[in-house]
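Need the bound structure for glutamine, inputs here:
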Amino acid sequence: MIDFQNVIDTIHNNLKDEVFRGLVADYIPELADIDVQNFGIHLRLLDGQTFATGDWNKKFSIQSISKVLTLAMALPMYPENLWQRVDVEPSGNPFNHLSLLELENGIPRNPLINAGAIVIADILVSLLKNPKEDFLNYVRAVVDDHTITFNLEVAESERLTGYNNYAAANLLKAYGNLENDVDVVLDFYFHQCAIEMNCEQLSKAFIMFANHGTCCLKTNQLSASQAKRINAIMLTCGFYDEAGEFAFEVGLPGKSGVGGGIVALLPNHFTISVWSPGLNDKGNSLLGMQALEQFTTMTKLSIF
Ligand code: GLN
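Answer from helper R.:
Posting the output first, comments after.
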């Protein structure tokens, strides 16, 4: 049996004094003041054992990590039509890229770039009675924790500065791939990105992907096949134009957010969350990538 506590403590020690930690995302003004020294790791095994170190219990903005959770909520409700509105190919482009490459006939390349996530947001806005509340309650139910909330300042900060996302949503609307008003869909999207969690909550939220779709939800669980597909999308698209690098260095399906969180998982085994707000030039947590590389190298636990 691997001494997981020792492994994550060693990784934390190896990296905690690193001087070059990347830059916090300041294009969302409300995220610009986060202390770049924060660094936490939380590991959850499928049998419920947990191991944690550093700033694992501080909350941060999950940002694009939410795109996997909206997809997981939408897919069982809209299983056939969803893949007609968004493709499943890696993009090789940054998350906010607008080129027609990403929007072939108005169909975004995948659900984890912003344009694709905005289509998924539109699907949820159409399907849910109270979209923001219903999605927040879904996340709370998945984690079994009713303290999870939106950071309304972050959502507002993004609304005021989200010109790229307005451009993407308008383009999707022009192509006929948004059913609802641009403002309504983006209000939902900015709120989903502004959900706050700590590393422990994030590890719990992603257990369903390590567990063939099964989690503590009473309804709307993913099927094993849907969980497999979402894992494939995380592996190929979860880190934008650095997805190849993440597979190469770490070898796990996972998802990053510009809040500095990364969550990754090994089906049948574990989920692991790392938070360090400094980002590399692709918008992924710099220390987070290094920590996960060390984790899969030290434990030899990866999909490869
Ligand atoms: N809310 C951010 C945006 O839309 C999410 C980006 C990210 O985390 N990569 O720009």
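Comments: The CA atoms of residues 116 and 206 lie 20 Å apart. Residues 4-299 form a domain with the Beta-lactamase fold (CATH 3.40.710.10).
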